[in-house]
Amino acid sequence: MAEAAPAINIGIEENAREEIAGGLARLLADSYSLYVKTHNFHWNVTGPMFQTLHDMFEQQYTELAEAVDEIAERIRALGSPAPGSYTQFSRLTSIPEETGHPDAQEMIRQLVSDQETVVRTAREVFPVVDRANDEPTADLLTRRMQVHEKTAWMLRSLLE
After folding, report:
1. Residue limits of the Ferritin/DPS domain (predicted)?
2. Helix runs in the chain, H state only
């Protein structure tokens, strides 16, 4: 009979780890939902800015694909299961799904809003992360906010 794995002892209390993992689960759901939407827009963009937007959206969804893995792995390191189904993501996300075929300008507007939504979700997790002195998660959140704030700025610039 195999012995049970030792309890997690990383200097963060279990209730704080669970609360942080819950916040990260929302960030994961938002990030995955944004990944799906950005990939959809990459496939379906049309118009005079096609090549520019097609390439830009590909860079964005590729970066998001790596990010969702990093977020999920942090949730696991904290001792919680990472959500991984459409049902879980749809319950946790703040990103509205797009089932239609918006024009390029509307795609950009939606992505600006969605990038900023991800920033707000990440920012909401910070208070518990700070209280728990969870520097690895703080670093992850800071990096995610930087990426999404910059991406929102770049997308917004296309609308000005």
Report:
1. 24-160
2. 14-44, 50-77, 86-92, 104-131, 135-157
What does residue 28 show for φ and ψ, rounded to 5 degrees?
A: -65, -45
Which structural domains are found in the chain, ordered by start?
14-93+101-157 (1.20.1260.10)
Cα 139 to Cα 125: distance, rounded to the nearest angstrom = 12
Q: What is the pLDDT along the chain (160 residues), one digit of tens a residue?
A: 778 888 888 899 999 999 999 999 999 999 999 999 999 999 999 999 999 999 999 999 999 999 999 999 999 999 999 999 999 999 999 999 999 999 999 999 999 999 999 999 999 999 999 999 999 999 999 999 999 999 999 999 999 8
Instruction: Say how many C-beta atoms besides its own lie within 10 A of residue 18's C-beta.
Output: 14
Let me know the angle formed at the C-alpha of 17 by 15 and 20, rounded to the nearest 5 degrees. Answer: 110
Global pTM reads 0.95
C-alpha–C-alpha distance, residues 82 and 136, integer Å: 17
DSSP 132: T
User: Residue 15, exposed/middle/buried by CB under 10 A (0-12, 13-18, 19+)?
Assistant: exposed
